Amino acid sequence: MSSFTQFNLDPQVNQVLEEIGFQVPTPIQEKAIPVVLQGRDVLACAQTGTGKTAAFMLPALHKLCDPDFKGQIGPQIVVLVPTRELAMQVAEEAKKFSKHLSRVKTVCIYGGVPYPIQKRALSSKYEILVATPGRLIDHMHSGRINFSNTKMFVLDEADRMLDMGFLEAVEEISAAIPSERQTLLFSATIDKKIIPVSRMLQKDPVEIRVQATLERQNAIEQKLYFVDNIGHKLEILDHILENTEIQQSIIFTSTIRQAGELADQLKEKGYRADSLHGDMNQRQRSKTIERLRQGKIQFLVATDVAARGIDISTLSHVVNFDLPFVAEDFIHRIGRTGRAGAKGNAITFATFKEKFRINDISKILGKQIDVHTIEGLEPKTVEKPRGSFGDRNRAPRSRGFNGPRSSSREGGESRFSPREDRGPRESRFSSREDRGPRESRFSPREDRDSSSKPFRRENVFIKEGKTFAGFPKKRKESGAPSSGFAGKKKFSFKKKGF
Fold first, then answer.
1. CA distance 199 to 233
2. Which pLDDT value is given to residue 309?
3. Which residues make beta-bridge pairs with 78?
4. Torsion over CA: 243, 249, 255, 261 (sign)
């Protein structure tokens, strides 16, 4: 059995690992730490909850113990993360691992915090900088950061950073850091989005792929419930909450509005619930997460961005009330539970129309999610066979040029007669000569009823309280009767000819 002693880390770092109970490295730590210590660039694929923060932070701290790093201005280690919650988590890990490294200081900057506070922190001496892209760019433009001595550049959850549209910010930050550096890129997936970024930022990186081990997958029990609609979701969720022993749970929704509304409904039912979403300021979000850590919140209804970086060992369940828009986000969601070897549970709701998303998620997981039903709450809709449309019992029709096109429906007569049975073309379409003179078909204007008014095309507009743009200002609302809708604004009708 391997241990952290095999890496020959600085004694001060090993002392911290012993105190916090780190004995056996995880697969990503075992593969990445030796490569990082060699100074090579690393492109690592590891899911959330596999210990990837320690995989780059421990060798970084070991290097900071080198005398060559002493007395230098500006950050020596720069860690870029997509969200403020993850920034706070990584900064806390850095402070925890550097407990006995008295001269190592960590600064964390992210949006939602007043600039003067962060300006004072950046003006002091520090070695590790953890930041989100947007706020780091702001401080760079203000000239508050000197990257001239940066030796290591880390991008954590790089896939999420790209999904959030931070590619240009990452490029600008990378250009400001010396090219003679070590670049570490960690991502939950390595796909066509990540490869070009790696080629742009890294030099001959060592690629490390650590898929979820069977033990890790089995630590999270997953259940999939197919639902008819939002009402059906709420019924199943209510049944699960009433009949399942849940210590704490995060319930993921796709919108900010739904997060707030669902949290309010849970409160009305007597649950200790609250919401976490992007419309909250940093103080509100930090307070909510702290209440979750203290156990004051049992059910946290959250959006994907807001919940990234939450690391709480007491989260026994994750509920995917809505499926994520990006399949990879499913991995990050369920990674909130089953951490540090604990047993976790992931419950997912989906409609049959969302089956294609479930298939994408299954490909990433490498297995199918077990489908469950609750007696009395089974879905009423039935999954349609792929390619079905309309009446499934109708006779099949040949397609293309591979055979004669069917000209009749089942049980009916032919709808299309052969061309030979239609008669000569002349008998079906009369020539212009057979139609008679134009005068016999259209009576002259003089012969029409003189009492009738000339035809005038008109368009009716419905107006509510004000004239439409483009109408002459002199036009006034007519005294036409109201529409008759009680309690509503009166409508009037105007005609405009053209």
1. 44
2. 63
3. 129, 153
4. positive
